[in-house]
Amino acid sequence: MKAQSFAYLLAGLLVIGTLVLALALAGCSKQETGDTSKGTKQVAKAGTEEAAKPAETQATPAPKFVQPLPPGNIRASHILISYAGTPVTEATRSQAEARKLAEDLLAKVTKGEDFATLAGTYSDCPSREAGGDLGFFPKGRMVKPFDDAAFALKPGQVSKLVETQFGYHIIKRTQ
Question: Which of 74, 102, 151, 158 is the most buried (most CB within 10 A)?
C-alpha cells in the first residue's frame, strides 16, 4: 500500500512540475502573440523602481524545502537578454549591446550577486517574475543550445553565456 501511495505522490509531482513549466512557457508565448503589456521600456523603468525598494523586497525568497526531482528532469533558472530582431521580444538594443549586458551580468553572478534579483531586474523573459525560475523540464523541452548547456551543469552551477535565437542566456541549474 505504501509503495502505491508513493507512486501516486511521484506522479502528482510530475504533473505539477509539467504544469509549472507550461505556465512559464505560456508567459513567453504571450509576448509572441502580441501582448505588449510589459515592453522593454517598462522593464527598464521597473528596474529603476526595483532599485528604490528595500533589498529584502527585491530578492526572491529561497524555497524552504527541495522538491523531489521528477525522473529525467532538471530545474533551472535563467536570465535572458534579447536584442532587436529576436523572436518574442520588444528589445531595441543591438546584438553587441545585449552581449555586453549579458557579460556584465555573468560577471556579477560570478562575483556572488543574487541570481534571482538580477533575473528579476534585467531578464527579458516573463520568468523574471519568479527570479528566472523555469521549473522542472525534461531533456529536449528547450531549444538545443539551452538544453545542452542546462543538462551539462551540476546543481548550483552557472553556465557561460549561451546564445539561442531568443538572445543570450545565463543559466543556473538549481536541481
Answer: 102
Dihedral sign of CA atoms 94, 169, 102, 60 in order: positive
Grid coordinates of 67: 522538491
Reading the block at residue 88, the C-alpha cell is 518574442
- Per-domain boundaries in the chain: 2-61+69-173
* Residue ranges with strand state E in 37-97: 73-81
Distances in Å between the Cα of 75 and the Cα atoms of 36, 63, 70 are 28, 13, 10
Could you identify the residue written with the cell 509503495? 3
Give 7-54 pLDDT, tens digit per residue: 454 444 444 544 444 444 445 433 433 443 344 334 333 444 444 444
pTM of the model: 0.61
Pick the CATH number of 2-61+69-173 from 3.40.50.1820, 3.30.230.10, 3.30.950.10, 3.10.50.40: 3.10.50.40
State the average pLDDT for the chain: 75
For 37, which DSSP code?
A: T
Q: Which residues pair with 74 in a beta bridge?
A: 137
Closest Cα partner for 43 from 113, 148, 125, 134? Answer: 125
